[in-house]
Amino acid sequence: MTCILGLDIGTTSAKAVLFDLNGKVLSESEKPYPILHPEAGWAEQDPAQIEKATIEAIRETVYEHSDNLIGIGFSTAMHSLIAMNQNGQPLSNAIIWADKRSSDESPEISSSIYLNTGTPLHPMSPLAKLKWLNKYEVEYYQKADFFVSVKEYLIYRWFGEKIVDYSMAAATGLFNIHELKWDEAALKEAHLSKDQLFEPVSPYTSLTNMRKETAEQMGINRHTPIVLAGSDGPLANLGIGAINPGETAITIGTSGAIRQFSSEPLLDSKQEIFSYSFTKDSWITGGPTNNGGIVLKWVQDLLSTEHHLLSMDEMTQLAKTVEAGSEKLLFMPYLNGERAPFWDAKAKGSYIGLQPHHQKQHLIRASMEGVIYSIYHIGHVLERLGNHHETLFASGGFARSSLWLQMLADTFGKPVKVPESHQSSAWGAAWVALCAIQNYQLEDIKQSIPMKTEIEPDLANHQTYQELFDIYQGLYEQLKDTFHRLS
């Protein structure tokens, strides 16, 4: 059976998913790697560990299907930065989106640059990271020949090519999303030459003739085409079928995001959301939250004991015993600061409204609801810019939780469609590969997404969530000064 592979390198793992040409999953493998915290507020990963995990995931996935594999589409998490020499050796770890070291540098960036790049000014941005490296004259910054993302690092090592797709370039804060080239003002701000960055190219760009040793380790033919595809955000929208006006993709894994495609850049005078290039005539607009599944993991660790690790299933069952609204307990899920819509690395997580009758089941449900409120808050900004939400499409690890999906439907008051596979970024990447290799069209993916279910909103719960969200959306401004003083 002819098959296509979607490779999705995320924050905590490399996932390889093998599909038939109709989107049915044939096999998959996921290999984790750690986030390193060498200093408080820093978040890094070892590029060698990522490469090893990626190769292992591919090898396990294609083991029985390599003869039928026609190509690989490549999805990667955004905002990583590696200092690299011309031999493809990393001089630094990958500084990832969650890194906060440039919190003081990002406000120093000229706000007008956003109008060219569509990237809000925040420590997640490689532009801010580069300013920090330059300010402190970090040795590897001085010695680096190139500054690249995890994807560019791997492509260079595997093929020797110095290229980057539009959506990965756009996530740097250094790319002009109107002209599809590196932005001169942003380069000047970063004290960088465009010769230190790779050439931006179409997501349909296909590479063959992989380094022989790497192909053997993966268990694939070295001439199997690898298509650049894009970053995980737009590919998740594509892979779930949220490509038309009114179709909104919501992805929650470790972090989370809400996004819509648009036919032009949608730039926000308040700079509350991003607008990134995808193809030469399409853009992805939305906002990310730092705090998705990582919130539930924190609650799990908090409530577990030395003798009993509270499972996610047990937590869900406890949360189900509490009615929508958690008996008026609110949770601000800013454990790792927050990106959209505030872009404030100093924001803090907070329970609001705690009373003696609140028990661990309330804490669990309020935490889950807080993550959804955060997504809903960004959704309001998109509506202010003219986007509307008719149908929600869910992807990421949270799509395995029927309770969390119901909360999403109830909060927005809109139906939620859920595909059979929660690996939508991988399927989106695989589909772009099919477009490049076999002349498929992007919009035709809607006929090739096996759907599992559609969840209808409970309108009584929707009313409860509307009343509580009205309180929630004002809390950040009320507590902002307190958060900054605590920092």
Named at the architecture level, the CATH assignment of the largest domain is: 2-Layer Sandwich
Give the overall shape.
globular
Task: Estimate the strand proportion.
Answer: 15-25%
Poorly predicted ranges: none
Instruction: Report the structural category.
Output: alpha+beta
Q: Mind telling me the CATH superfamily name of the largest domain?
A: ATPase, nucleotide binding domain
What is the fold-level CATH name, i.e. the topology of the largest domain?
Answer: Nucleotidyltransferase, domain 5
Please report the number of helical segments. 15
Total number of domains: 2
Task: Bin the helical content.
Answer: 25-40%
Protein name: Gluconokinase
EC number: 2.7.1.12
Pfam families: FGGY_C, FGGY_N
InterPro entries: ATPase_NBD (IPR043129), Carb_kinase_FGGY (IPR000577), Carb_kinase_FGGY_CS (IPR018483), FGGY_C (IPR018485), FGGY_Carb_Kinase (IPR050406), FGGY_N (IPR018484)
